[in-house]
Predict the 3D structure of the following.
Amino acid sequence: MDIQLVRTTSSDPDFLTLIRLLDEDLQHRYGRTPQSQYDQLNRIGPIETVVIAYADQPVGCGCFKPFDVQIAEVKRMFVRPDYRGRGVSRMIVSELETWAAELGYLEMILETGNRQPEAIGLYQHSGYSRIDNYGPYVHMPDSFCFSKKL
């Protein structure tokens, strides 16, 4: 399987399609009511640091945004179910880390949910450590937060 990674922005139509699929996946995992409290936190607005993975179609994505001047926050990671288990998510995370380091960030942080074991495994295998929930996730028991020095 040949995967190509493309750096783009949040206005990319392929990114918007993948985000719709991500939101559907999250609704399925968590249900409408619990997920609704996260929906407002998942709006990323215009962002210039999006990565899309392509095979014969767009198969995965992720992005990051500034958390502060030294820390970037990973957002909206997703791989289509039929491409999971093939290393696509690791490729995306690695590209996001490389890009963030190029821009001068020293650390990456992120939040994922307790019903996303494949995401938790990805981050642990990619060198992320569990940290206390930060910012808007402090009082959200379904949230797991992670950090990695770049």
Notes: The beta strands are 4-8, 50-54, 58-66, 71-79, 107-113, 129-131, 143-149. The first helix runs from residue 13 to 30. Residues 58 and 96 are 17 Å apart (CA to CA). The two ends are 28 Å apart (CA to CA).
